[in-house]
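Lab meeting prep.
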Amino acid sequence: MKTPTPRLAAALACTLLFAFYPLSAQLDTDAAPKSPPITASFAADYRYSSYLPPEEAGDRWRSAQSASFEARARAGNLFSFSARVETDGKPGSFDPDAAIETLSLAFSPSPACTLTAGKQNLQWGTARAFSSITRLAPPVDPLEPEGSSRSVTGVRADLIPAWWLSLTGVALPGSVPGSPADETTGALRAELLVLDTDVAVGLISQIGAGGDRETAVIGDAARFFAFFGLYGEGQYVIDGASDTQITGGLRLDIPAWLDSTIVTSAEYQWLPENTDSEHRVFLDISGIPLSRDLRAGISALAAPDASLIVFRGTVRWNVNQNLDAALSGRYQCYTKDAPAPVWWGASRAEISASVSAAF
């Protein structure tokens, strides 16, 4: 047997060293705890409006302005933070409860479980304009969903036990607008995928200080195909004040020029207990391409039995990936005694301009 030469021994030692060094480094890396990467994003929005108030308030145009700031942060897939504040800039008019639209912290111990606490937006249901699940969160202005908030304060838990099933539970300690301050709201919702259709059912329970309970059954469904979809949702009160609401809608995605898609939505809402405005309809056409960077949209909503109709048109300019500008006009026709919902706006006419930036 030959004895290895010093040169061969050195080469063998170097080979073993280079072979085992990456493995040892990997073992050290795996043993050391890793800090989750932290990412953050910010957005700001400014809006100026000139509007004509209701007839009883005169015929002089007035102006208003507002600004909003939004911040989001995420630590890996474990924690996420969200905050949004809006102010009109008037001295002495800052109300923290109204100005803070969202302020929440979410914890995800696993991809199938998320716990969120704080003031947050609840997006239950499928309606684009007329939400029928009003026992849980306030309705929004259908013509300005991006400027409206369905935020409530409480705790939310989301669980996904299977790919076809998701469960959500919400506890709101007296935070639903319009409910008494000493009232507690709880809700459970299960969403299933059945034959390519999203179906959800749930219960909303409100308990007053005296132990009075009101329970509502909610449900929604949506089925989307290549270019169109059907959706609907409803709410029925089992025990308590009647508040039945049903919404049905249709969405069409129409291929257009400049490699764009025009999205058309139509909705109908039926409120059998609302004698002032039992029927409501909504039509929205968005994404109309005017150029590569310009998009237009038109919307209309009406309550035929209340003699009320509202129109809105918008032109949006996508300056670049992080900057948008928009110009919109709005006109409202109604009889003098029409009981217009407060979230439809009280002004007869309005022109507004806005700028949005993301960082």
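Slide two material, second protein:
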Amino acid sequence: MAPVRRRPQNLSLVQVLPLTFVRDRYSINFGPRLRPRREQRPLLVAVMLAGLPISLHAQGRLPEKAEQSPPAAVKAALRPELRVEFFGAERGFAVGRDEVSVLCVLRNVGGAALPANAVRLYCYPLVGLDYTSGEIKPLVPELAPNQATAFRWRLASGSLQGTLLTAVMLQSARATTGSGATAGATIPASSSQTNSVPGIPRAALASIPHFAAPPALGSIRAGTAAGISGLAHPGEVWLANDRVSLHLRRANGAEPVLSLAAKDGVEWRILATGNPLIEVLSCEDGQQPWQQRFNWRNASVRSGRDEGSLTIGGSAGSLWEAEWSAIVRRDTGVIEGKIRLTARQNARLYGVRLTRLLVNSEPAGGGLGRSDGRAMALPPDEDPLGTEAPRLAAAHRGGVTFGLAWPSRPPLEGWSPEPVPTGEPHLAPLLGGAWTSLERGDLILAGASIEIPFRIFAFAPSGTVRDALRFALP
């Protein structure tokens, strides 16, 4: 059944004020939300699951003459915009009662410098975690346009398994309590000013996958040149040939976590952790969209001499049946993947994020590094692929180049591809992409399905990340 798409009624990007007071010259901007025109009421600050757009901009008196006021686009371009590009466990998961290093990467995506000490970043361990040491509400240093900084906290887990939740929130350092004024919030006219991925959240929440034991290559029986190897156990599946391996385990009851491994010389190397496998931004018609992550319900593996396949079925929230599948063939490091979403009821779809790969960059010896909550300046981003492959994200570790690619054809007419922010490119780079239609969404009728193909690859021996260009999709 083909998807049926209709434009929403009475929906626009409007100015919503979740915080209502302004002090002195600065206010915090949390980004636009889609709301019906008739429902422009104050909102509470909500903890969400993606990046955090925040703007700190000057407030002043209105000019005496309207023509003296610069255009809104000019004013937006001349103010700082803070975005959380990554927040989560630096390794991608937690193990037992071991301490976990939580990384937060902030970037100024605006057109003006952020003044030093104008914003404070708060870290909140919410469920299953506790502080160990270090600064839990550090001040953000001065950030030039497109400059990034990183913060790390070392948190302790109180159990062998179970849900682990932590959050960060940005607040003006000028905020006061009691009868004094607190930081206000205004919303820019366009979501493109603040965020390029699905979702415009008020804060960043990290749900950390939690295992009793770490992923081990010993549990992955790598395939041989004679065929494809694969096996499915309750809560664990894997599929491999003689070059590349996929190992998926179920964490926190239903959340799948992917380990991508490849052969580097004569040894196998775990390259990246994939989580979430699928993330959907959608809602019932007339509501605000929210993010829904993929939950594992069942899995199957088929292996043969020349080809093997792996399929995980489940759901994404209450609105979608979801399926993540991969095909591994003989004599290649390419894995052809597909996401399939089927609407359980009429739903409006705004975006789909592909599998997010967190590159395995743990320091030698397994140390967590400095995790005291203090800001660490990050060097400028350098994209070795440039603009040659806009739908390709890749990294290079050891003698292996690996990554994710997706085709130019959108899953629905009018949708556009969006890269996932790279996070901390030297310590915890992120690889991923998304398809979005943030300003309108598409109405998908109950029973209709959409399919989104993608490609995961690992190539060795490789001397440069530019080897990834050969795996780009048309």
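Talking points for slide two:
The chain has one helix and 35 strands.
Confidence is low (pLDDT under 50) at residues 4-67, 176-201, 364-368.
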